[in-house]
Amino acid sequence: MDVLPAPVQQIFAANRARGRIALTVRAVDGTTRRAQVREQGPLRVRCPGAVSRELDAVIVNTAGGVAGGDELTIEVSVEPRAHLTLTTTAAEKIYRSLGAPAAIDLQLNVGAGGFLAWLPQETILFDRARLDRTIDVELADDARLVLAEALVFGRSGMGEVVASGRVRDRWRIRRGGRLLHAEAMRLEGEIATRLAQGAVANGAVAIATILIVPADESAAAGVRALAPRLRGEAAASAWKGMMTARLCAKDGAALRHDLVAILSALGGLRLPRLWLN
After folding, report:
1. Each residue of 107-129: pLDDT tens digit?
2. Which terminus of the chain has fewer Cβ atoms in its 10 Å neighbourhood, N or C?
């Protein structure tokens, strides 16, 4: 990896983005409304559509992408009995870094009887991108969560290949104050070589995870039954009252097709309109 001289790194560091959103939603007379919104740096959140039981929110990154050294923090709090579906205006792009990694920190909190569908569009990594991401979720005992995150290594339609870079992804899901799920992924160095390995992605360059709480074996079986309709590979398992599905596909378009097919098959889940445009 190229390393910039220290004075140049200091100049870049002084111009890095520091973005933050703090969104709290509240149930009011059978509808969900914004209770608090704080925005900083390039991040914005907008809530299009009419007032209803479930609020739709869209995150906007006015910077048009994430560069090395940028730090983005998103804090979402769904108060008791509130319902929120949250997405992004477009796929997030993580650009090449010659120095510090980009850092994204997600903190999601869902109160008693609340529901959160965290459905951002794909995160696209460019060659030599460096990303450190953490996802921390706190759920009340009877809260509900649908979380889908997708990573695409290069835009296949543009002939892009992510030969090298770094991705460090750490998730922690807690319910009722107890750890329910923990996972970590690290891809570093020759990413294309690692993705080509059969035990990693078997040549796929687009991967995703869907996590649903609560869920049981019937949900996992429903995902497996969709296999003939999918363009990539998917596997699902259920345990401890939750379900996790893993997806691999040859490109971002195939992955999006499979994500829509699986999420649409889940009873009662309404996909954001931006996913379907």
Report:
1. 999 999 999 999 999 999 999 99
2. C
CB-CB contact of 76 with 84 (8 Å):
yes
- For residues 149 and 117, give the distance between their C-alpha atoms in angstroms, rounded to a whole number: 11
Q: Identify whether the C-beta of residue 67 lies closer than 8 Å to the C-beta of residue 98.
A: no
Note down the domain range covering 153.
6-199
- The predicted structure's pLDDT at residue 6: 60
The mean pLDDT value of the chain amounts to 92
What stretches in the chain show pLDDT beneath 50? 1
What is the three-class DSSP state of 274?
A: helix
**Position 104 in a domain:** yes
Give the total number of structural domains in the chain: 1
What is the predicted pLDDT for the residue at 1?
47
- How far is the C-alpha of 171 from the C-alpha of 212, rounded, in Å? 14
pLDDT of residue 9: 57
230 vs 19, 120, 253, CA distance in Å? Answer: 36, 20, 12
88/275 Cα distance (integer angstroms): 9
276 lies in some domain = no
User: Which pLDDT does position 157 carry in this prediction?
Assistant: 76
Amino acid occupying residue 80? P
The answer to whether residue 33 sits within a structural domain is yes
Q: What is the DSSP string of 110-166?
A: E-TT-EEEE----EEEPTTBEEEEEEEEEE-TT-EEEEEEEEEES-GGGT----SEE
- Using left for φ > 0, alpha for ψ between -120 and 50, and beta otherwise, residue 141 falls in alpha
HSE value, Cβ hemisphere, 13 Å, CA-based, for 184: 4
Tokens of 202: 């078997």
Instruction: Judge whether 165 lies within some domain.
Output: yes
